[in-house]
Amino acid sequence: MLDSDVGNVAYLLQLLLSGLSTGALYALFAVSFVVVWKASSHLNLAAGELGSLAVFAMASLTTSLGFGVWAALAVVLVASLGGGALLQHTLIRPADRRGIFAVVLTTLAVYLVVNAAVGLLWGTQARQAPSPFAGGSGGQLVLLDGPPRAYLTYGDLLALGTLAVVVGAITIGLHRTKLGLAYRAVASNRLSASLSGIPLSRMYMAGWAVSTAIAAMTAFLVGVRNGSIDFQMMTPMLAFGLTAATVGGLDSIRGAVIAGLALGIVVELVPGVLTAVSGDLGLIIALVLVLLTLLVRPQGLYGTKRLERV
Amino acid sequence: MSARFAVGSPVHRAWQSAGLVTLVAGAVTLPLVFDDYRLTQLGQAVAYAVALLGLNVVSGMSGQISLGHGAMFGVGAYTTAILVGDHGFPVAAAIIAAGLLGLAVGVVVGLPALRLRGLYLAIVTIAVVTAFPLLLVQPFGRDLGSGGASGKPILLSFVKPSWFPLDVTAVGFRFSMLALTAVGIFVVTTRLVRSRVGRALIAVRDFETAAVAAGIRAAGVKVGAFAFSTMLGAVGGGLFMLMVPIVSPDSVGFPLSLLFITAMIIGGEERVSGAVVGGLMMVYLPTFTSDMALKVPSLAALPQPGLLATVLYGVILVVFVLFVPRGLMPLATRLRERVIRFVPPGLEGPQSGNPPRPREPSETASPAVRRETAST
Fold first, then answer.
1. A99 touches chain B (CB under 8 A)
2. What is the pLDDT confidence band of residue A50, given thresholds at 50, 70 and 90?
3. Where does the pLDDT of residue A279 fall: very low under 50, low under 70, confident under 90, or very high at 90 and above?
4. Which of B128, B130, B315 minimises the CB distance to A238?
């Protein structure tokens, strides 16, 4: 039933660390969904593909044009901000007039086009990921020497650090700036916000811009972790990110972070501890978690319960 | 001015019967006309159309989005291939079993998601469709006989029996059986959609609160519709195996779901007939674009020119969502209504001048009632 290594502290610690660092990626991606959902109740299903596009562009910048990794990252993050705002302005806004499902369908169309375009332009073969570290995720920071040893790679540290910085920046941005106050007003009540003079459309654009940039950052970190990138890399992430966002509560950044980290740990721990579970069942676990959440607590761990007056 | 007849009048009945006879005759006689290659393509289109019909029921009628039909198609295809190949089931029994499995999956997936309003079904079905291809290559899936990453071949000994009167090939016979089954499914679904059940579904879609107040159990109706639709998805996948020799994990994932969604929007999500247009689109559009791409040197030089079809799908999807949100079939209906129009009883008969058009002229002539309000 239980894995024979289950008594080994280092083995368990390693599962936990590995889960935390995977979970940081899920959490980050979930945050990108939450940022959009909070203001507009839209689901940007194309976020992951836009992230893939960004990381492939990064790869070309670093290999062909001689950019440093950080410079290339800065370029694609700025481009993602612009791209997200542009996408909202040109496609999502007209679709929004036809209802919420038209918006989802439009993001799916963007998914199709961007996914295929990346495959067309860069080929369907995996290529080396742009990474600041040698050999993808870099050296190891050994916390507990084994065997097996418990460690974090530099890539893992970068992922966890990025999550902390992004969430910190969003929290400060939402609570300490005027734009953030306006954004929270829109999230709380769109009609009153617009009546008090907040330009809704600019708020939506800001949300999509930030969300797309976070997705680009996620794709970059997924590349660093895997060491390689390919045009399908973000498809499983879409399921994991949506799961984390749903379990945490679609309008809660705190929920997205906690659920993302927890999802990472569960996905690593369950096959690592129970021998009955073999193979790569992460997505199945995610599916079960989503279904259970919707059955037991539809609004998610930290989501706002929606009341409807009829 | 077009001729107007009441719904249910002898002329309307005759019109419907003529359509049905044409379909049945086509299913039986096409194998005499076309070669095996064309029949295989057409058969695939018909199998896709059955799955799309399921998608129409869930999207057009209950106003939800399922992104899981790629996986449902896979469930049906794999179940059929495994039951026929490994357990010696007759093909018909295997496809029925596939449909029942699809029904069960639909209940399990739909029950949690459909009690809630909004996009939860989309989220859950994304999880289903990304998890399913992965499940196939895991030890668990391989134990069931999925054949792992290389796919599951199907060995059909399903050839023309001696009683079948026409001189057709084995593929031709399979095509006829597939097409006749599809016609049956379309007739039953059309009946169902126009019945009390279908009206309850439309009521829930258009105004859930009012529907509940009228005594409709909204969650039950929605789950039922979704399970019916996943059943059709699985049956479509099973029928597909009559036309193709192998199914692989790559072919039944999220990309297939997206193609289904696009095809559904092209045909028109609120029409039973839209599914047929969508099915044809799914088979012929990729062939068409790859032929076109090979003629343009700069496109043919791309590493994966086949992906151009996907780009085109995306462009078509966004154009339809923004500019033709009801799809192609309502346009076809409008053309037909220049010649003949079916109206509720009492409105027929010769009309002089410009008669007051019913607000929804095609409402009763089509199985699905078009959406009045954007569902939010």
1. yes
2. very high
3. low
4. B130
Angle between helical axes of B218-240 and B36-56 (0-180°, round to 10): 170
Would you state the torsion angle of the CA atoms of residues B197, B202, B204, B209, taken in this order, to the nearest 10 degrees? -120
pTM value is 0.87
Residue B31 to residue A280: CA distance in whole angstroms: 45
CB B129 within 8 A of CB B257: yes
Report the percent of chain A where pLDDT is more than 70. Answer: 94
Between A281 and A215, residue with greater pLDDT: A215
- Residues of B with Cβ-Cβ distance to A117 under 8 angstroms: 307, 311
Task: Compute the count of residue pairs across chains A and B with CB atoms less than 8 Å apart.
Answer: 161
Which of B63, B311, B376 is nearest residue A116 as measured by Cβ atoms?
Answer: B311
Which residue from B minimizes the CA distance to A245?
B123
Q: Residues of A with CB below 8 A from B325's CB?
A: 98, 102
Indicate the burial class of B142 (C-beta count within 10 angstroms; 0-12, 13-18, 19 or more): middle
Cβ of A120 under 8 Å from any chain B Cβ?
A: yes
Asked if the Cβ–Cβ distance from A43 to B119 is below 8 Å, we say yes
Strand partners for B340:
B3
- Measured between CA atoms, the residue of chain B closest to residue A103 is B321
Interfacial A residues in 13-42 facing B (CB < 8 Å): 41
Euclidean distance between CA atoms B85 and B89, whole angstroms: 8
Give me the helix-helix angle, B69-87 and B91-114, nearest 10°. 150
10-residue mean pLDDT profile of chain B (376 residues): values are: 75 83 83 86 93 89 86 94 89 93 94 81 91 86 80 78 78 89 92 86 85 86 91 95 89 90 87 87 84 75 76 89 84 80 70 50 43 42
Does B120 sit within 8 Å of A109, measured CB to CB? Answer: no
Distance (Å, rounded) from C-alpha B45 to C-alpha A294? 35
Q: What is the pLDDT of residues A95-154, one digit of tens each?
A: 988 888 889 999 999 999 999 999 988 888 888 888 888 766 777 777 777 677 788 888
- A166-178 pLDDT, tens digit per residue, is 999 999 999 999 9
Phi, psi of B35 (to 5 degrees): -85, 175
- CB contacts under 8 A, B 285-304 vs A, are 302-304
Query: How is residue A214 written in tokens?
Result: 């976070």
With a CB cutoff of 8 Å and minimum separation 6, the contacts of A217 are A28, A51, A77, A162, A166
Which long-range contacts link B214-220 to residues 24+ away (Cβ below 8 Å)?
A: B219/B114, B219/B115
Q: Which residues in chain A are closer than 8 Å to B112, comparing Cβ atoms?
A: 291-292, 294-295
How large is the ipTM?
A: 0.88
